[in-house]
Amino acid sequence: MRAVFRCTVACALCFVLLISTFPVLHVRADEGYGGRVALTFDDGPHPGRTKRILALLERYSVRATFFILGCNAEYYPEPLELAVKMGHEIEDHSFDHKTKGKTADELKNSITKTAEIIERVSGRTPRYFRPPEGASTPALDEALSALGYEAVFWTVDSRDWTGKPAKAIARDVLKTVRDGDVILFHDYTCPGENTLHALEIIVPVLLSRGYRFVTLEELYACAK
Ligand SMILES: [Zn+2]
Question: Would you call 42 a catalytic residue per the annotation?
Fold first, then answer.
């Protein structure tokens, strides 16, 4: 009985020790980005999911970056306007997610059509482009360079697009995220609300570890 009690006390002490050292273990003051990470969302806006993600981000005063599709923004302007009003960064993910097999001119048209929507709603010219499915082609490189865009990928893929349960998404992101990471999520194409429920776990845990969420522009500005 005494041994069981000793073990329980030891476990409780370990737990307290783990909790108290948690932030120090994850974010050190000498790291290049000072604990800044960027949440990014592709493929929206979606009439329901984007709004629910925006509400969650607002609850924690978190700013993120949305790589939108022009065709979805034409159908669902309201969540895009809301994202702009809340101070999120809006960037370009093409007009219809179709980039493979297209010429540089066709791609320029797709990117510019989306940029015009972003400019109209936010008053700001997008500067980053995330290639759909992370696929670069010579034609896309040519289009981006002609338009003055920078291609942006990610350093952590939540893999929410696979239909993974929310808890598994959160577990894997929390296990891998490091200072300066760009984390990929989707606010349109994922089944159900897995992305939202994963974020409900991820955001408060990363904040408790001392991370700060910033937009891509802010993240890259502090690396210079
Ligand atoms: Zn996409």
Answer: yes
Catalytic residue of the set 42, 43, 92, 187: 42
Residues 167-197 have pLDDT tens digits of 999 999 999 999 999 999 999 977 679 999 9
Of the candidates 26, 46, 93, 186, the residue annotated as catalytic is 186
CATH number of residue 102's parent domain? 3.20.20.370
Using the mean position of ligand 1's atoms as its centre, give its distance from the Cα of residue 18 in Å.
38
Mean pLDDT score, 33-55: 96
> What is the rounded CA–CA span in Å between residue 188 and residue 44?
5
Kindly report the pTM of this predicted structure: 0.86
Is 19 among the domain residues?
Answer: no
CB 131 within 8 A of CB 116: no
Task: Supply angle C-alpha 177, 178, 179, rounded to 5.
Answer: 140
Output the CA–CA distances (angstroms, integers) from residue 12 to 3, 9, 23, 26, 49, in the order listed: 14, 5, 19, 22, 40
